[in-house]
Amino acid sequence: MSQQGGRPTGPEDDWWGQLYDDSTGDTGPASVPDSLDDRFASAAGAVGDRGVPGAGAGERAVPDPVLPAPRPGADDIMDAPRTSGPSPQRAPWEPPPARPTGPVTFPAAAKRQGPERTPPAPPTVPPPPPAPPFWPGPEAARTTAGAPPRGPTAEPGPGGTAPPAPADPPPAPPRPAGPPPTPPPSADSPPTPPRPADPPPDPPEAAFERPASSPGPRGHVGSRPPTYDAEPTALPLADPDELDDLVADTVLDGARYGSCTVRAVSVRGDSARYRGEPRRDSLLTARFGTGEQALLLVAMATGARATPGAHRAAAEACHWIGRAVGRSHVRLVEDIRAGRRGDLKSGLHRLTDRSLGKLRASAAEQGVDPEEYAAGLRCLLLPADPECRTRVFFGVGPGGLFRLRDGEWQDIEPQVGEIKGEPVVGFGSPPSETPDGDRLTMDLGIPTPPSPYEPAPEPRREPFRFRTSVARPGDTLLVCSGGLADPLRGEPELGDYLAERWSRPEPPGLAAFLADSQVRVKGYADDRTAAAVWEA
Description:
By secondary structure, the chain is an alpha+beta fold. The protein has helices at 15-20, 36-47, 138-144, 270-275, 310-327, 329-338, 341-366, 437-443, 482-490, 492-502, 510-517; strands at residues 220-221, 250-257, 260-267, 281-288, 295-303, 375-383, 390-396, 400-405, 408-411, 464-470, 476-480, 520-521, 528-535.
């Protein structure tokens, strides 16, 4: 070809015209037939030269197709007839053969009603390895059960037309429940491995013996459940400008020093939870000092009933007594170690009166009746020295002091008419006229506070309660407010339950102690505050 717009200068290349020239004649008909049937017959003749009996004249002999060996286990179909040699049936996943609609030059399906003839023997194939028995699906059972064997070839009818296929056989009856019946083995079929035995049925549920679980905390004791719900219902009313005045529903604390383990808890009562009132009880746990000179204080106070500021009075009473004990903890530890019972009683009595006097002074500043802004106070002193097992209790107001020894509760609350109380085991009280010990402990540098009223009102006539004792290994000392002391004295089942739970070798954890201390009793719905000491 030339450049665009140019003319060729040499002879024109005629390859395009020679390729697509219409004047070129065709090669003409071939000397042999070249139809689709002729090509198929030629290919069939190249594969084999065995003819088909009964083939018409002029037709090329077509050999029988060689069927592949059946899949191992494919002929183990329920209710299917067995013959010697490989089964001629198709596999369940193979589609059914198409029915011929016109003249063909290859063999058609054999007549099912005509006489059967023996097919030529297929080439020798080694037996397949044994395989698990084949479990036919419903489609395979429906298409193969009860059907006569199909021959591989059939003679075409007159004119080379295959006879029409018969109607489908009736559907097989439904398969019965249970495993399929095993067909009888033939002489040349490979051995079938035995079917694994079914596992034995599970024994009934009642035959199992489950170990009994350890009993957990109980919700209540007594013949009837309490009236109120076991969980908090309503929250107390809050003032956005006095959020520090809010009191938590539950306070939980604990520690371990020397030979004692302490657990302390304060829980709002059921009636206060239902009405949305704050907890009237207050709890304070504090440690003053370090090492063997440390002193543990557990203080609990209960505000007056049916007064709006009861929770504030209880909190102030705990804070005042905590400050007084903390400032004098060194002298208190020395007196506890030396067993100066008289000095301890006199000094702690003055500390308690001073704290309650400041509470009355706070009521006067707020313009509140001192009888309404009052609180009962109960305290426990525990030295951290492991060699000292002296436990000191003191307080004012209702509550309880119990000791669990050898699985039985002992009510050791000091009585109102008891002045001296039970002496410390193994220690004596020194004379009150000693020039140094008594006076130093009794004064503690605390002046008597003046009365804010003129004339001064009569103070509350609550007796001062004091007791000291030496703990034994295995004892449990319990100090509690009236919310727990009253049901312990009034419901024996509660005492039995707590004795079983708290007599174990190890003291309970915080969560277990909380659950045990709030076991409810019908008729007792006040706040509960308790502190227990386990002796190792």
